[in-house]
Write a structure and sequence with these properties.
Length: about 375
């Protein structure tokens, strides 16, 4: 009988100890509320533990200097920083039955086991509620993050669009600044000097009968290329516009000399051309480049000096004509530019003692212009 009672008490004690193993410890920080925990380690300066209601989760640590005391399941108190706070130690009920009262002892153990089971059921319910709350929070956090990602994507798209617009404005501003730096202020007045080549496309045909026999005999020399120089002045209008007008009075001189020898006969001819005219030009301005074109009215004088075997005869011709001109100019500076131009002119000549006739010429000009 005593053996059976002993085995029963031993079995009850083992069951009680198995529940006690999962019992909670209480960590009382110096600041803050109590922590219900499962102690893992108290070595070193830190106490490592897990939350009692979530022992599958991560472990935490707390410095011993921040702990007022730890109360273990068996009622034992442990302090780390004296003086320890006064606390009434609680002791677990003794599970050793008093002699002669085994039935009461077993009833008491059974009651304690029931209380422990009820406590564990409550803890499981609390843990489930905590996990459900945590799951709801995680779901809400996930939704918030997804919405945030969507808003971030929209924000990035707007920022990219804005950045491209700012970049385009910067490029336009840089281009405008470069254009402004490259631009110069055009001047209203100027004068130019140029080298001229003038090509007469037709010969003089009809001339006086007796005044210039030498000239009449050498008419083959009257057409061809003449070279010389020109001088012109410039008066411009509408300086603040991209399209303006110019008035250019000009004076040009060109000449040509030819000679030939047939047997003992030597002959030569010098043709000199003097012209004074006015040009009326439209000008298109683009930063440093000016493009211009327009008509002209010219008064012309031609002097011929023909020589044969030491005898020189001079003839003169006066005429008038009109022409068309076009050219371009590059302004190296506000006060200086280089120009190239070309044109064509039709003249009517009135030789002394002869009938009027017309000649046609083209020209090219290369020169420089000074503005002030």
């Amino acid at each position: 009988m005593n053996s059976i009672i002993s085995r029963t008490i031993l079995a009850a004690g083992l069951v009680f100890l198995s529940f006690t193993t999962f019992s909670q410890s209480i960590i009382k920080p110096k600041k803050g509320e109590e922590i219900k925990a499962q102690i893992i380690s108290t070595e070193g300066a830190l106490v490592e533990y897990k939350l009692y209601y979530f022992q599958e989760g991560a472990s935490f640590t707390i410095a011993k200097s921040e702990i007022q005391y730890i109360k273990y399941p068996d009622g034992r108190m442990e302090t780390f920083d004296p003086p320890a706070p006064s606390a009434s130690p609680s002791t677990t009920p003794s599970y050793t039955a008093p002699s002669g009262d085994v039935t009461k002892a077993l009833d008491k153990v059974a009651q304690q086991l029931k209380e422990l089971k009820t406590g564990q059921d409550g803890q499981t319910k609390t843990l489930n509620e905590t996990l459900n709350s945590l799951n709801t929070t995680l779901t809400s956090l996930k939704t918030t993050i997804e919405q945030g990602n969507k808003q971030t994507e929209e924000t990035n798209t707007k920022l990219t669009t804005l950045n491209n617009a700012v970049k385009e404005l910067n490029e336009k501003s840089d281009s405008k600044t470069a254009g402004e730096n490259n631009a110069i202020t055009p001047r209203k007045f100027g004068m130019g000097v140029s080298f001229i080549t003038n090509y007469l496309l037709s010969n003089f045909s009809e001339r006086g009968e007796s005044d210039n026999p030498t000239i009449n005999s050498n008419e083959v020399f009257y057409s061809g290329l003449l070279m010389g120089a020109g001088f012109n002045m410039i008066v411009s209008t509408r300086m603040d516009k991209k399209v303006g007008f110019r008035y250019e009075p000009e004076f040009n001189v060109a000449s040509r000399f030819s000679s030939r020898k047939v047997g003992n006969d030597k002959s030569s001819i010098r043709l000199s051309l003097f012209s004074f005219g006015s040009r009326f030009l439209g000008v298109a301005r683009r930063n440093r480049v000016n493009i211009y074109a327009g008509p002209s009215i010219t008064i012309l004088a031609i002097v011929l000096q023909a020589g044969e075997n030491g005898t020189t005869t001079t003839g003169s011709y006066v005429g008038a004509g009109f022409g068309l001109h076009f050219g371009g100019e590059y302004l190296v500076h506000s006060n200086f530019g280089i120009n190239m131009e070309s044109g064509m002119q039709l003249y009517g000549l009135f030789p002394k003692g002869g009938s009027a006739e017309g000649i046609f010429s083209t020209y090219a000009r290369l020169g420089g212009r000074f503005y002030f």
